[in-house]
Amino acid sequence: MIKFENVTKKFPLGNLALDEVSFDVEDKEFIFLVGPSGAGKTTILKLIMRESVPSEGTILVDDFDITSNEFTQVEILRRKIGMIFQDFKILFDKNIYENIALSLKVIGLPDDQINDQVEEALELVGLSKKTYDFPIQLSAGEIQRVAIARAIVGDRDIILADEPTGNLDPKTTWEIMRIFKKLEKNKTILFATHNTDIVNSFQKRVLVLKQGRLTKDQRKGGYDI
Amino acid sequence: MNEILTSIRRTPYQSLAAFLILFFTLFLSTAMFISLSFLYGLLGYVETRPQVTVYFQTNIPQNEIFKIRDKLTNSDKVESIKYVSKEEAYKIYKELNKDNPLLLEMVTSDILPASLEIFAKKPEYLPELADFLKKEPGVDEVNFQKDILDRLLVLTDILRKTTIVFFGFLIFLAVLVLTTTTLFKIALKKEEIELLKLLGASNFYIKKPFLLEAFLFGTTAAVGSFVIILGILFSLKPFFDSYLKDITQLNLPLYFTQLTVWPVNLTFLSIAFLLSLVFGIGIAFLATLLATQKYLKI
User: Fold this and answer.
1) From the UniProt record, which GO molecular function terms apply (chain A) (predicted)?
2) Taking the complete model, does pTM exceed 0.90, yes or no?
C-alpha cells in the first residue's frame, strides 16, 4: 500500500514540483500517472524511492512512514521496489545475466536462487536465448525488457516505471506493455507515461497531474488531457 | 576476485600508482623498523658492558682499592662493581694472547694493574664517576664509554625522530595517492553505484569491492617489499657477521620478554612482516574508507 497525504515538494530555488498531492494505492493495483512534462510524475516516483524527501506531507509505503526523520531503512524500502527508467540504466560492461543478477546480489541471495530467478525473469520477458549477450548486442526494446526483468526479480512487490516506452517505437512499445499486462496480477505498478494509446487501451486507474497538482483521480479512466 | 582484477585492468596506471606508493612506504618503513631494532639492540648491548673502568697503579695495596670501591657503592649512582685483581687481569691477558707466546713471555702478573669495572645506574652519572675516580690516590687511568654511548644515543635519537617525520610524510603521501586513485575509480563506476543504491544495496555492499582491492594492494605490497628486504638482509649478512663478530646476540626489550634481533631469526622476521602487513592493509583501508565516506555519501 502506498499513501500520499498532502505531499508538497519544493525545489531549493522555490519552484513547486508537487502541491498538496494526496492519493492511495492499494496492493496489486495498476495506476497510470499522466501529465505533461514537469507536471510532477517523476517527482512522485522519486519520493516513493526516497531519492528525495517532501517539503511537507506524509508518504507511507507498506508499514514505513518514509517521510519521518527517524526513517533509516532506505535499503529495505528500495528492496521492495523495482524501478524502470526511460533511459534504461543498464550497465553496458555487464552481460544480461549479470545486469539482472545485480538486483538479487544486493539482497544477498545465494547463487542457485539467483540463477533460478534470473532464468524465470528472462523467460517472462522473452530473452531466454540472450542470457549471456551484452547490452550492445541488443535492440532498445530488448534492453528495456532486461530493465523490466531486473525490476521484477527478488520479490519486489512495487514496480515504478518512469516513461519506460518513451524511447521506443510503437511496435516495441506494445511488446513491453504485454509484459506489464503479465505483471499486473502480482505487482503494484505505478506507470508514468505520455502515451495516450497505452492509457486508453489498458483502462486502469489514472492520476492526472498538472503543474504539480493532482487534477483528476479516475478509476478505469483514459487519458483525456 | 574477478571484479577486482577487472577494476585493476580498467585503471592500470592508477592501480600501479596505488601499488607503488604502498610498496615504497612499506619497504622504507620495514627497513627503518629493522634498522632501529638493530640500533636499540646495540644500545642495549653497550649499556650492559662495563661503563667505567679504572686502572690502579701497580704498587697500590688492595685495601685502598676496596676503600674506593666502597665509596662508590655508597654513592647510589652505581649499579654494580667488579674487582679485577692483578692475577685475574693476567689470566684475561693470557686468554686474549694465547696464540702469541712472545707477548706472554714479556708480561707477568706484577706489571698488570688491578682494576674496577663499574656499571652506572644511568649513563648521565658516568662523567661524575670518572671525575671522582681521577681525584682518588693511586688511580692510573680512567676509561669510560660515554663517548660511544653518547654517539649511539644521538644516532638512535636522530634515526627515531627521522623515522617519525618520514613515516608521517609517507603515510600522508600514501593515503593521498590511494584516496585519489579510489576517487577516480568511484567516478568511473558512478552509474553502477547510483544503480546499486536504487536497487537497495547496503553501504557495505557498495564499499566492499573498493575495500577488497585495498586489501589486495596492501597484502601484495607488504609481501613484495618484505621479499626485497629479506634479499638485502641476507646479502649483507657476511658484512654483519664480520662487523658484529664479538657480539653473540642483540636483544630488544619487548614488554616482559626480550626479542632477539641478531642473529636474524624467524621470530624477529615474522614480527617485522606482520607489522608491515597490518600497516599496509591499514593504510589502504584508511584511504579507501576516506574516499568512499566522503564522496560516495552513502
Assistant:
1) ATP binding; ATP hydrolysis activity; transmembrane transporter activity
2) no
A186: Cα within 13 Å, side-chain hemisphere: 8
DSSP SS3 for A127: coil
Low-confidence ranges of chain B (pLDDT < 70): 47-50, 145-147, 295-298
Which residue of B199, B202, B208, B298 is the best one to mutate when testing the A interface, meaning the one whose CB has the most A CBs within 10 A?
B199
Phi, psi of B151 (to 5 degrees): -65, -40
pLDDT at A70: 86
ipTM of model: 0.90
Q: Is B202 in contact with A91 (Cβ distance < 8 A)? A: no
| 3-state SS class at A25 | strand
Distance CA A48, CA A25 (A): 12
Q: Where are the alpha helices (DSSP H) in A72-190?
A: 74-78, 96-105, 111-125, 140-152, 170-183
Partner-chain contact A102 B197, CB within 8 Å:
no
- Does B198 sit within 8 Å of A49, measured CB to CB? yes
The chain B residues in contact with chain A (CB within 8 A) are: 191-192, 194-202, 205
What is the C-alpha to C-alpha distance for residues B40 and B268, in angstroms, rounded to an integer? 14
- Residue A106 CA from chain centroid, whole number: 18
Domain ranges (residues) in chain B: 2-47+149-295, 52-144
Domain B52-144 of CATH type 3.40.50.300? no
DSSP percent split of chain A into helix, strand, coil, nearest 5? 35, 25, 40
Write the CB contacts of B35 (distance below 8 Å, at least 6 apart in sequence).
Answer: B159
Q: CA of B205: which chain A residue's CA is closest? A: A106
- Give A-chain residues touching B195 at CB under 8 angstroms: 89, 91, 102
Band (A224; pLDDT cuts 50, 70, 90): low
What is the CB-side half-sphere exposure of residue A138 using CA atoms within 13 A?
26
As a whole number of angstroms, the distance between CA A73 and CA A81 comes to 13
Asked whether B129 and B52 are in contact (CB, 8 A), the reply is: yes
Residue A39, CB-side half-sphere exposure with 13 Å CA sphere:
18
Rounded Cα–Cα distance for residues B162 and B167 (Å): 8
Query: A49 in contact with B at a CB cutoff of 8 Å?
Result: yes
